[in-house]
Amino acid sequence: MKKVIQKIGPVLMILLTIFPILVIYQPISKQVPSLPNFEAPSWLTPVGFISIACIFVLSFLIKNKGE
Fold it and tell me: Is 35 within 8 Å of 28 (Cβ atoms)?
């Protein structure tokens, strides 16, 4: 089980970074005219914070399983 968490954990962490990036990209796309305009749905901001919390928990799981 340790090996599975150590292999799948980083992949999940990378996938979970998509939501916060989209939350950050929305105001940037409005300021920079060369970027495509992106209108994020209202539920995306809370999901971004939840995914950051999940990344935090996964990092501790990987650290604890590695010892």
Answer: yes
Handedness of CA 27, 31, 33, 34 (dihedral sign): negative
DSSP secondary structure code for residue 42 in this structure: T
For residue 35, what is the enclosing H or E element? none
Model pTM? 0.74
Residue written as token pair 């501790």: 60
Chunked in runs of 10, what are the mean pLDDT values of the chain (67 residues)?
79 89 86 85 89 91 70
Task: Report which of 55, 56, 64, 61 is spatially closest to residue 14, judged by C-alpha positions.
Answer: 55
Q: How far apart are CA 48 and CA 20, in angstroms?
A: 5
Question: What would the two tokens of residue 9 be?
Answer: 């954990």
